[in-house]
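Problem 12. The chain below contains 216 residues. Write out its predicted structure in token notation.
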Amino acid sequence: MRHQFATAALILAVLAVTACNILIPASYIVEGPPKADAAFILPARKTVVVIDDMTNHMSRVAMRVEMGEAVGETLLEQDLVPEVISTRDAIAYMRRADSAGHSASIQRIGEGLGVDQVIYVKVDQFSLLGSGIDRSPEAIALVKVIDVTSGQRLWPAAGSEAVRGTLLDIDPDLVSTSAGRRELEDKLARETGEEVAKLFYAHERRELGGRLGVKK
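Solution.
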């Protein structure tokens, strides 16, 4: 009798789960959320992340550091590269080059920092108001990878890969204060950096954010 009750309870439990998930594909239940493959397999070389914000979309240098460090830290966590030079050092090197009266090329920056490849990230958009219906904070970064030895791009073949970073479900009151805006700016910079890093390893897809495709 106990065995019959246990069997009946198990059947009811399975039916309940099935009813709750009737609109969810079986593959989702078995395998979990869909994943996006890496857009590019990054060579396992000494790397630096350069954040280019020449048009000053971001008001503070600290935001550039936050974005670049988010990329580098994620690459190391995913064991994709053996070493990452800090973005802060890259910014300092670029400042020294600018003060000498000439802007350093991506290859020159890489050589000066003693790395094998540069992940070059150009900030194309950065706004706490965003552009969507919900006006969520949004940033767009354009990414390419450069081989320092040859000076040639490794990826993409042409143009740059566009990536969007977004912040969801934020406290709207934060935008109204200086301290709140700084907090959101730092979070958006880090979120965008993490999205850039996802170009180089398989990860769960998001409804918002992620790759936008190649931009010329």
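Discussion. The beta strands are 35-36, 47-52, 84-85, 117-127, 138-147, 153-155, 160-166, 203-204, 210-215. Students who got a different answer should revisit the alignment rule from Section 12.3.
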